Amino acid sequence: MAALEIHNVRKEFGSERVLKDVSISIDSGEFLILVGPSGCGKSTLMNAIAGLEPVTSGNIYIDGEDVTWRPPADRDIAMVFQSYALYPSMSVRQNISFGLEMRKVPKAEREAAVERVADLLQITHLLERKPAQLSGGQRQRVAMGRALAREPKVYLFDEPLSNLDAKLRVDMRTEIKKLHQRLGTTIVYVTHDQVEAMTLADCIAVMRDGHILQLGSPDEVYNNPVDMFVAGFMGSPSMNFIRATLEDSNGGYQLRIATPGEEELVLPWPEARIAPDMAERLNQPVILGLRPEHFSEEDERLTSQAEGTLLSASVAVVEPTGADILLRLPLGEQEVTARVGPKCAVVAGERLSLRVDMGRAILFDAETEQRIA
Amino acid sequence: MANVIRRQTPAARLSRGLLYGVLILAALFYILPLVVMLMTSVKPLSEISAGSLLSLPQNPTLAPWTKAWGEACTGMRCDGVGGYFWNSFAIVIPAVLISTTIGALNGYALTKWRFKGSELVFALMLFGCFIPFQVVLLPMAQTLGWLGISSSRAGLILVHVVFGIAFTTLFFRNFYVGIPNELVSAAKLDGAGFFRIFWRILLPVSAPIIVVSVIWQFTQIWNDFLFGVAFSAHNTQPVTVALNNLVNTSTGVREYNVDMAAAMIAALPTLVVYVLAGKYFVRGLTAGSVKG
């Protein structure tokens, strides 16, 4: 049975429609991430699940029960807030046990729950402290502890890592993932950070303007985006969108990229990936989507086995990140980002031979921004 | 101060000296009335009529104080201001507690349980801060009559509570606006209700604004004269009214020393409250504007 089911939920503030017919269903133990730019409705959806804001229409089911009109306390959920929302006047111990106390759990059981959670999150030595005496990372742990103590059916995380510094964020991210693997909890997690979404989720819902654009596994969302928005939102640096014209080439297809005054640039479209819609777009403008890692440095030793189409371009900017190097290169009238290995010795201004893995390229309609192939 | 960098030329020192001189003179000027009151209150009457206002008392005596407290005539009765002093407490303490409690609940509801029109309700309540006392004297007298509590302490308490709520609501509302709503959301998810959240989450962090509200209300109500004179009987009068009666009662020679002692007695509680809790008052008023 689905642990959480959202049926045609709409939310309106006056005439403004914040959620437009959202439906999601996740199984018990699944990690769902709601991701999208600010104002896309993801936090509103989270608040609707939590019961902090009523929906305009639609239904929400938790573990098969309709909870649409139940107050937050009766939904068997726990939430970790962006600001942690620890009760400032209470010690860590009281913070963790408050929810149990409100539910009239006997003291001995409460104590046991606090010990169990503190042990799990390694905060036993902090139990007597007040929130003001804790660092950001420690507060984050306590906030999770407060949620874990109640053992609810569904956990809600509202951008829980956005107030931490970069290093701590990566550590806590791993920790949340470990915790999820260990406890098998059902989690709904809101973030605007696509790296968090990719690394944590079993299932990602990419949202925009109150719609869910795509719901799928991280792999699907990343490699098979439904439109240009999803493609551009997921991945950093983001996907290159190159304006091109779709042409016929001996029964197959090829893409011509406009290069005024330079040698022509034509990329063949792999036969295996021809879609039926392509025929009607012959000689029309399309958008070619290539991720930075779809480019690779031409290696002469491997030429015989190398896949992909060779092209050469002059390098405008070289940005080494340590693990790899990002190159900015003009391709026709646009500049694209390519990710190459850290050993690449190219200098800005030089020309470089690159291979493009057209087998992973994605084609979008230039007007509707929807995917063609 | 050692932690300020300033020029050390003779001219700079001279101008600094002048600055301090002016400031000290201004301070003396402001403290003078209090000094005169204190000195006059411990002088025997003969010294007052003979000497100047500023002369030091030659034979200090506490007799004017004991007379002001227990024997001086206020109108028809001659039992001092002592009884009225306690009257004032009996009015001020309940009025302060009730108005602060209601203000806290109002502020909490207006910020953490917003409803349609809550901003309008707040704006209307703010209006109450600007209504002059005189305007409500007659309708209030009528209301107290209907309620059957005219000329009683309960009536005066009610008047002060009604007038105080506007200010206490303003204080608490502005304080609670700065407290994150997520705290309340978290407590709702944890299963706490309206009063439980207030009692367990909000109230424990409200100390600064409670101090502000209590000092403000205490000072306002203690110093009130108009409501005191309009809505009290002779046995429920606050000390401010008694002081007025004492000063205005003419029985031959005017006893300035007793008047001064009575005035000091009437002013003492607000002074004490401010001296004891003044720093929390300033801290509470600025709470929220600076983090940490």
Automatic annotation (TrEMBL), chain A:
Residues 4-234 form the ABC transporter domain. The keyword Manganese does not apply. The keyword Translocase does not apply. Keywords: ATP-binding, Nucleotide-binding, Transport. Pfam families: ABC_tran (PF00005), OB_MalK (PF17912). It comes from the Bacteria. GO terms for biological process: carbohydrate transport. InterPro entries: AAA+_ATPase (IPR003593), ABC_transporter-like_ATP-bd (IPR003439), ABC_transporter-like_CS (IPR017871), ABC_transpr_MalK-like (IPR015855), ABC_transpr_MalK/UgpC-like (IPR047641), Mo/tungstate-bd_C_term_dom (IPR008995), NA-bd_OB-fold (IPR012340), OB_MalK-like (IPR040582). One of its GO terms (molecular function) is ATP binding. GO terms for cellular component: ATP-binding cassette (ABC) transporter complex, substrate-binding subunit-containing. This is Sugar ABC transporter ATP-binding protein. It comes from Halovibrio variabilis.
From TrEMBL, chain B:
The keyword DNA repair does not apply. Keywords: Membrane, Transmembrane, Transmembrane helix, Transport. Its main location: membrane. It is a multi-pass membrane protein. Residues 85-277 form the ABC transmembrane type-1 domain. One of its GO terms (biological process) is transmembrane transport. InterPro entries: MetI-like, MetI-like_sf. It holds the Pfam family BPD_transp_1. GO terms for cellular component: plasma membrane. It is found in: Cell membrane. The chain crosses the membrane at residues 17-39, 84-108, 120-142, 154-176, 197-218, 260-282. Belongs to the binding-protein-dependent transport system permease family. PANTHER family: ABC TRANSPORTER PERMEASE PROTEIN (PTHR43879), GLUCOSE IMPORT SYSTEM PERMEASE PROTEIN GLCU (PTHR43879:SF1). This is Sugar ABC transporter permease. The lineage of its organism: Bacteria, Pseudomonadati, Pseudomonadota, Gammaproteobacteria, Oceanospirillales.
